[in-house]
Amino acid sequence: MALSDTERQELLERVSTKAGDYEGISISCAQGTLVALLEEFDFPRTEELVGAMSFMPGMGSRDETCGALVAGLVVLGMVSGRSKLSDPSYNTPKGRAAFFKSRERAYRFCEEFKKEMGSTMCGDIRRRLFGRTYNTFIPEEFEQLVADGAREKCRAPAGAAARIAASIILEVKDEDAQA
Question: How far is CA 10 from CA 6, 15, 19, 96, in A?
Fold first, then answer.
């Protein structure tokens, strides 16, 4: 059953808030985003999957790709990505069209996130949110990040990624229901 516009908006607000809340608990935009999306769409939440996100913020704390973006891409892949390494159906016109449609969704997700957050790169986002970046491999720098408000400020990328991914997931579900 399709959601009303009001129900859709409520879901997007709920998943965004939940991702921010979970980011604040874990101090991990990747884990917060992932768990919020898994819960909202009733995907299995395994310790292994959540654990796999541990090193995603800034792609291993290197100021590279935002972990919230990575988590959103993982869940989008769960919804519309290829589930096997190889399958004869992948080489059919329908299979290729589905593959390129899922890639378009992933690209659009990244572009919408970039438009909202100003970048897809953790270091750039931190500079925008905190006025600086942090070398979180140094314990004192990590503690300074927390002291400077990471639990509150890093809600923004987690919430944005969860909301944008959820919107695309709802589109996929709508398309599937019409097929």
Answer: 6, 9, 14, 34
Q: Contact 161/66 with Cβ under 8 angstroms? A: yes
pLDDT digits (tens, 9 = 90+) for 85-116: 888 888 899 989 999 999 999 999 999 999 99
Long-range contacts, 9-13 (Cβ 8 Å, 24+): 11/40, 11/166, 11/170, 12/163, 12/166, 12/167, 13/163
Model pLDDT, residue 121: 96
Q: What average pLDDT score do residues 55-81 get?
A: 89
* Extents of the domains making up the chain: 5-178
Instruction: Please give the Cα distance from 58 to 138 (Å, whole number).
Output: 15
Neighbours of 38 (CB within 10 A): 19
